[in-house]
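Problem 12. The chain below contains 393 residues. Write out its predicted structure in token notation.
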Amino acid sequence: MNDLDALLALLTPEGRALLDEVRGTDPARELAVATRLRRTHPAELVSAALGQARLRQRAVAKFGAEDAGRMFFTPDGVEQSTRASVAAYRAGRMSALGVASVADLCCGIGGDAVALARAGIRVLAVDRDPATAAAARANAEALGLAELIEVREADVTEVDTAGYDAVFVDPARRGGRGRVFDPEAYSPPLSWAVGAARAASRAAALKVAPGIPHDAVPKDAEAEWISDGGDVKEAVLWFGTAPGAVGATLLPGPRTVLGTGLPDPAVRTPGRYLYEPDGAVIRAHLVAEVAEQVGGGLLDATIAYVTADELRPTPYATAYEITDRMPFNVKKLKALLRERRVGNLTVKKRGSAVEPEELRRKVKPQGPNAATVFMTRVAGAPTMLIGHPADRT
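Solution.
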């Protein structure tokens, strides 16, 4: 049974009843549950229900238990869909721009369409894959949003978006060999998406990989990098907002820092505090803005660690108080950790070839205390900095 047939079978009364019965099935008990259910239900339907139950469990991290428990997923749909918190933030920006209708192109299983509809925006959700489009339609119905979301199975490059205020495009960034890094290898290519965005009457947003080269960002676009809970999730190219602007937005919040055109911070000697900028700040090339906020400089010209003499809390970086500094030397580090009775060791690295787990195995931390070690470079020299989060009492 292919993905589309499995989904359609699960939408029948028998399929829905079976989904309710297998909800929350422990993976360790799947075989026993499947054996029991196959006595009264078709084997393929039982397999489809158990597979959907697994997908729903995986989707909880992105959509929350309540929504994930009602939605329908494909394997690729779970992997590629936007986290609900990020989609809600983006939909909020669309609403604030006065957008009343959006053409959501490459809609996937409908996560972004759901967020837009919940913001009161009418959505045309388009995907060319039959199973994916069917899942998006089922999700609109399951979440009570079918009146606001029209799902169309079609090639997005052939869809007329003239009747919509805005366009949102989430091109596929995976191919047969995994992730695609060249924006022109997206499906559809970034150049096509940019053309569709420029044709929108009010605004447009293009979801792209956070590693997109800055020189690939069109000059008439605003570029925004978004992280959620410290994890960089995506970059968005906005049209019809602030051409040329660059920002990093941190969720929950949201908190946004905008680029001001500052030069790279100067390299200086390590101070009492080390600041680790959020990944979205680093991707957006806004480390200089954070360094200015905390009155700091860089440990090394090529590494995004900021050092300062004073503690100035900022939402855009995590601060650590540094207690020790030494050239890279595993034996000396092991002795120091043993003396400090450190058993809970966090290892961070930038500019070092040593893997954190490798270092942990070598130093064998033991004891009741905690510490963080940074393996990095200071003015080009391999260095270890030891400390702890600055807000620790």
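Discussion. The chain has a mean pLDDT of 94. Students who got a different answer should revisit the alignment rule from Section 12.3.
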